[in-house]
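Morning. Coffee machine broken again, so started the prediction first thing and wrote up yesterday's gels while waiting. Chain of 183 residues, entered below exactly as on the submission form.
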Amino acid sequence: MKKLSAIFLAIGTFSLLISSCEEENCPPNALAYAVFALSDQYGNPIQFSNPISIIGQIETDVVVNDTLEDGSIHEITKPDSIINDTIINQESAAEHFKLPLSYDSQTRFIIAYNETTFDTITVTHQNIPYFTNLDCGTMMFYNVTNTSFTQHVLDSLTITNPNIDNNEKENFKIYYTNVAAGE
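Came back before lunch.
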């Protein structure tokens, strides 16, 4: 009888452990990208004939460590420093771009058409942490509240979907004139 109770106890404990394990249902894409579609003035998709680059730019305080003559290290904070990072380098024939947004409330992108011609796009957004479960962690979604841009080559920009999440869909449409798109 004692053997039978021990077997039932072992089976019961094992079944409780199996049922308490959580199945990992994490989304395959845990990153949220802003999708920028390129179009002509009529809304038709376009591709640039020359390669373009996109540079992410943030403004932040940077801590610099300076070694003094006596060997001690002195920390200096440089306020409002601008940091650039190339996100897309020399992309050819693209109809859209998927770009990450900053965890700050504002993200700035520089579109470099060539070495001397640039446009800047600034996206103002609210960051929305999204918790799936303990196994997956937290994702960051965004709600776009405003945009501003320069108009050197770029004609206009519209927000087509202000909610940026991990479902890849068009969020912005960048309009160019036919002459500018061929450059």
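Residues 2-20 form the longest helix (19 residues). Going to sketch it on the whiteboard this afternoon.
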